[in-house]
Design brief:
- The radius of gyration is 70 Å and the shape is flat.
- Helix 4 runs antiparallel to helix 7.
- Among the domains are: about 335-420, Beta-Lactamase (2-Layer Sandwich); about 430-590, 2-Layer Sandwich (Alpha-Beta Plaits), CATH 3.30.70; about 605-855, EAL domain (TIM Barrel), CATH 3.20.20.
- With about 850 residues, it is α+β, with helices and mostly antiparallel strands.
- It is about 55% helix and about 20% strand.
- It contains 29 helices and 26 strands.
Length: about 850
């Protein structure tokens, strides 16, 4: 590096051996912009420049600190000098001894001045006695210091406290002065600002000169060498283009010479490598050709081996599968010698051998050994069924192989088929819902029981049972609830009978019981009563309490009949009789009832035809209002125009209609016809008369009764206020709580409700007052008592009804006395022969037209 100092390193602008396309001294590179770019890329330049700049700033900061201190002391001296001048001027203008108070006042005034330097002080005499103060009081007090250069500087506010002895002021008094040095801070700061600017300019200048010197001596040559070294690796084929000049005598020159030598060696090595690469490429091509040929041969051989292996594996798999097939077969496979020795058995076959209590190597037990021996003597296979220990059923085929000397026994699992066949047989003879025997199995067992009874000279009872109001459960709770009820009833019946008895479901809600081997009919009565009691126990279905019940008809073999069909008909007739007598009872078949039952059956069939032909007609009986003597309405009464017997009264066919539930369609027709006729009379000017229509217990149990009323009113156009529905007292009180709910729903339609035949039942006043009923009808029996007993019941009913806010209608009024008595009680309406018999629609129209005159003539 000494040489570098004695001989500065420079890069020639255009050296003779430098390549013409990349000289470092081109105008683009030597310009200011190129200079800045090169300096910005030089990391070393940045480090050196930063160090130089920091050193200069450090030195100048120390010098600046000393300069600022001495400058500040000079300003303090200047302030003190100006203060002395001010004190001298004050003492010269007014001597302290002449007028001490005036002197202090003058000093105070001068200290308060705007530009005052001396702003306060403490005056002492020669002995150190304090004589007085003026202005701001200095911080120095007490004896006067002997050092004339002693002073105290305050930073805030900027003040100087100094001591001036008498010798320093050419007077007889010493002074501790307080001087105003506020301007010194600004002067010092201005001095520092001026010096800092100069220092920065000097630092920047020195740093810039350092950068230029570094660029000239180090950066430019190093960048040139770096660029040539970087480009040399790309074009070693032309080493002369990248040789560096070797004329320098410093370290850079040594680097250039070393690089040129290395470049020549690399070029020679490169030529050798390229020759070797060409030879290696030719050898590689020859090797690749040989490898390809060899690889193809190996591939062909490998493919042939793969095909052979695949064929062998497939054959082995097939052999293994065939070997496992007997063991994997879920059906038994057994091989036995002609003498009965077991030669082989698969897994399923071994289970069968366990059931036969033998094993492979042992002999088959009887009768299987004889079956094998018989099969060996035949050429045809022999088949039979057997059951294993776990309950499986197998169909066995014995296949003899005479040449081999053994018999193969093949089993086929037919358990599912047997079970399916058993299920089919069971379903063919049993009810799918309850599991009870159906009609076919019942008749078969009845035949067996009759034959057994005939041999034993015993009796057989046949019970026919029908549930009461089962349709109501289906209609209100749904068929699923009905099915649950049937299952429950089936279980209860089975708990009532003996193991030898048969309980069957014949269809719907109809059950039958065979009670074989009886000594007398008392046993049948006991069983019937036991079943009725079991049926009467309420049960809960889907949150609803259901009260089941039933009726039972009983017939006895051989007293009533000696054949199954006749017994079933007799039991059915007895059941019909039980249901007609109020349900919930049992009845034995009685021969004398046969004709009556048959007649009721015939009448039921004729009713069905009458509904289709509409053989019914309505009569209307007027109702007289005692308030105003006017016709307030009428009650509709059905008549049956029988094609052979003529008109039949309701008493002859209504019970049959109710028992067979034909009353439901008949009741719908009555309601629709009565409303239609009443609307026709109103449209013809007959006034707003109210028609009364009777509802039976069967109709009330229909879930659609409320919808039926709404539908009829909508179709006929009759106002709901003109329709009154009558329900008998006994029907209303049969299930009072349910009736109240039904009455409330019917009242919501706007129709009126009345209780018919009141007094004949057992009404509860607690329920009666809750019924939404507008009218009570006094039964005819109590009206007839008026002549003899003066009608105490009629009077009580009238009083009771009025107390509940109901109107009273008396039925069966036939005399003037009866009417007068009822009028005296306050009865609202009467109806009966006294007013008019029931009339056809045409006759009723005439009656309404002529009513006032007819009534006057009658009276």
């Amino acid at each position: 590096m000494n040489a570098a100092h004695s001989h500065p390193v420079t890069v020639p602008d255009a050296p003779r051996d430098a390549p013409p396309d990349a000289p470092p001294g081109t105008p683009e590179q030597n310009g200011l912009f190129g200079f800045v770019k090169r300096v910005a890329r030089c990391r070393l330049c940045w480090k050196v420049t930063a160090a130089v700049f920091a050193a200069i700033l450090g030195i100048e900061a120390v010098l600046l600190g000393f300069s600022a201190f001495f400058y500040e002391q000079a300003r303090f001296d200047e302030v003190e000098q100006r203060g002395r001048v001010a004190w001298q001027a004050l003492t010269d203008s007014r001597a302290p001894n002449d007028d001490w108070a005036g002197f202090l006042a003058a000093a105070e005034s001068q200290a308060r001045g705007h530009d005052a330097i001396l702003i306060g002080g403490i005056i002492y005499d020669a002995s150190g006695k304090r004589l007085g103060t003026f202005g701001e009081t200095p911080a120095i007090a007490g004896p006067v210091p002997t050092d004339p250069n002693w002073r105290l500087v305050h930073e805030t506010p900027r003040r100087i406290d100094t001591v001036w002895p008498a010798t320093a002021t050419s007077g007889a008094h010493s002074l501790v002065a307080r001087l105003n040095a506020a301007a010194v801070s600004g002067e010092v700061q201005g001095f520092i600002s001026r010096v800092v600017g100069q220092v920065l300019l000097i630092a920047l200048f020195v740093t810039g000169m350092t950068i230029i010197l570094l660029h000239h001596l180090i950066l430019a040559p190093m960048l040139y060498l770096s660029e040539r070294l970087a480009s040399a690796g790309d074009e070693l084929d032309q080493p002369e283009r990248h040789r560096l000049p070797e004329g320098r005598s410093d370290e850079l020159g040594d680097v250039a010479r070393a690089f040129n030598g290395m470049l020549g060696q690399l070029t020679r090595n490169l030529h050798d490598i390229r020759r070797q690469e060409v030879a290696l490429a030719e050898a590689n091509r020859d090797l690749e050709e040989k490898v390809l040929d060899r690889t193809q041969d190996l591939l062909n051989v490998n493919h042939a081996l793969e095909l052979e292996i695949d064929d062998r594996k497939q054959a082995e798999t097939e052999i293994a599968n065939l070997a496992r097939f007997p063991e994997e077969n879920p059906s038994p496979v057994v091989r036995a010698a002609f003498d009965g020795e077991v030669l082989y058995a698969n897994r399923a076959g071994r289970k069968l051998l366990d059931h036969w209590q033998t094993d492979v190597g042992a002999r088959l037990p009887a009768p299987w050994d004889s079956i094998v021996a018989n099969a060996a003597s035949s050429v045809e296979p022999h088949e039979l069924d057997t059951e294993s220990a776990d309950g499986q059923t197998f169909s066995l085929t014995f296949q003899p192989l005479g040449d081999a000397g053994y018999v193969n026994i093949y089993g086929y699992d037919v358990t599912a088929r047997r079970q399916a066949e058993e299920r089919v047989r069971h379903l063919a003879n049993h009810d799918s819902l309850t599991g009870l025997p159906n009609r076919a199995l019942f008749q078969d067992r009845l035949q067996q029981s009759l034959r057994q009874a005939q041999r034993a000279h015993a009796m057989v009872a046949v019970h026919m049972l029908d549930l009461d109001h089962f349709k109501d459960v289906n209609d209100t709770l749904g068929h699923a609830a009905g099915d649950k009820l049937l299952v429950e009833i089936a279980g209860r019946l089975q708990h009532c009978v003996r193991d030898s008895d048969t309980v069957a479901r014949l269809g719907g809600d109809e059950f039958a019981v065979i009670q074989p081997v009886l000594d007398d009919s008392d046993g049948a009565a006991i069983l019937a009563q036991k079943m009725l009691e079991a049926l009467a126990v309420p049960l809960d279905i889907e949150g609803h309490t259901v009260y089941p019940g039933g009726s039972i008809g009983i017939t006895i073999y051989p007293d009533d009949a000696d054949g199954a069909e006749r017994l079933l008909r007799n039991a059915d007739m007895a059941l019909y009789q039980a249901k007609g007598e109020g349900r919930g009872v049992y009845r034995f078949f009685v021969a004398e009832l046969n004709d009556t039952v048959l007649r009721r059956r015939e009448l039921e069939d004729e009713l069905r035809d009458a509904i289709v032909r509409q053989d019914f007609i309505l009569h209307y009986q007027p109702k007289l209002s005692l308030d105003g003597n006017r016709i307030a309405g009428m009650e509709s009464l059905i008549r049956w125009n029988h094609p052979e017997l003529g008109f039949l009264s309701p008493a002859e066919f209504i019970p049959v209609a109710e028992a067979s539930k034909l009353i439901v369609p008949i009741g719908r027709w009555v309601l629709a016809e009565a409303c239609r006729q009443t609307k026709a009379w109103q449209d013809a000017g007959g006034g707003a008369m109210k028609v009364a229509v009777n509802l039976s217990a069967v109709q009330l149990r229909e879930a659609s009764i409320v919808d039926d009323v709404r539908k009829v009113l909508s179709e006929t156009g009759l106002s709901p206020a003109c329709l009154e529905l009558e329900i008998t007292e006994s029907v209303a009180m049969d299930d009072a709580e349910a009736t109240i709910g039904l009455f409330e729903r019917l009242s919501e339609t706007g129709v009126s409700l009345s209780i018919d035949d009141f007094g004949t039942g057992y009404s509860s006043l607690a329920y009666l007052k809750n019924f939404p009923v507008q009218r009570i009808k006094i039964d005819k029996a109590f009206v007839d008592d008026i002549a003899e007993q003066r009608g105490p019941i009629a009077e009580a009913v009238t009083t009771l009804g009025h107390s509940f806010g109901m109107e009273i209608t008396a039925e069966g009024v036939e005399t003037q006395d009866q009417m007068d008595f009822l009028a005296g009680l306050g009865c609202d309406e009467i109806q009966g022969y006294f007013v008019s018999r029931p009339l056809t629609a045409d006759d009723f129209s005439d009656f309404i037209t002529q009513f006032p005159a007819d009534q006057a003539a009658k009276n």
